[in-house]
Amino acid sequence: MEIDSLKLKKLRNYLNDEIGIYVEDDKLKSIYERKIKKLLEKFDYDNFNKFFKDLLLRKNSLLKQELINVFTVNETYFFREKHQFDTLINYILPELDKIRPLSEVISILCAPVSTGEELYSIAILLMEEGKLIKKRDFLLLGIDIDSNVISKAKEGIYSARSVQKLPPEIIKKYFIEKNGKYMVRDFLKKAVNFKVVNILDRYAMKRLGMFDVIFSRNMLIYFDEKSKREALAIFYSILKDEGYLFLGHAERIPNDIKLFKSLKIGESFVYKKVSDS
Ligand SMILES: C[S@@+](CC[C@H](N)C(=O)[O-])C[C@H]1O[C@@H](n2cnc3c(N)ncnc32)[C@H](O)[C@@H]1O
Description:
Elements: H1 5-19, H2 25-42, H3 48-56, H4 61-71, H5 82-99, E1 106-110, H6 117-129, H7 131-135, E2 138-144, H8 147-155, E3 157-158, H9 168-174, E4 175-178, E5 181-184, H10 186-189, E6 193-196, H11 202-207, E7 211-216, H12 225-238, E8 239-247, E9 260-265, E10 268-273
Parallel strand pairs: 1-2, 1-7, 2-6, 7-8
Antiparallel strand pairs: 3-5, 4-5, 8-10, 9-10
Helix pairs in contact: 1-2, 2-4
Bound molecules: S-adenosylmethionine.
S-adenosylmethionine binds at residues 19-21, 72-76, 80, 112, 114, 118, 144-146, 149, 198-200, 217-219, 248.
């Protein structure tokens, strides 16, 4: 089926409203040719209006999920921007450990987590540090809107490229190598949790609970301004007082948003929640 640019823009705008990602006009045609066309064939659509109507009426949740999966960019790897994890382990968690009662779980959210490397990296570094996890409980949760990447995160099998920034001794301790693939060892898998969630779905986000630290790296760059502001407001609402937000190196909180204070801690810039009380 051929689709004109007006229809493609309609589809782009619908997805932009739903999930925040904004695809520029000049990229639409190629995404259609490479991916959406096949998806429409798979679901037996030969009429755009029928397909779009079904989408709006939420007639087929699998179709919607697969369409979303087509639009996401999932690049990630272990120890990406490691200095941010070092800031977390060496400064932020020791500080939170002092101010939170020992009976309170310290919760860390990776939103989005893609195929899981970011959350596993945090778990590995917490285990390497050793003292904090002996002392108290941590909850590590990773969420993403793309159901394919969450399945891969749960599976925990990675390519050599994905683990290339990890020192050999860490690979040996936390992975089983088989036929050029790296399988996360069971004890590490048990330390993390993954879930499909749309960050812009404020009710689903609220249901996750409150967090001490949120990592949201390399997603907001794909969002339009309105969705980015919405996501930041949601992160604010689920961060505990004294909580911290980490963004990707190309992402900033607009100056007029006064919900977070920018700080340099260790080698990284982080955002601390400004308490609303
Ligand atoms: C480039 S990856 C970033 C992964 C990881 N945080 C990192 O920096 O390595 C961006 C991820 O954002 C996810 N994403 C995009 N829009 C989302 C939304 N509305 N809710 C949840 N995840 C979303 C995509 O599915 C994709 O896996």
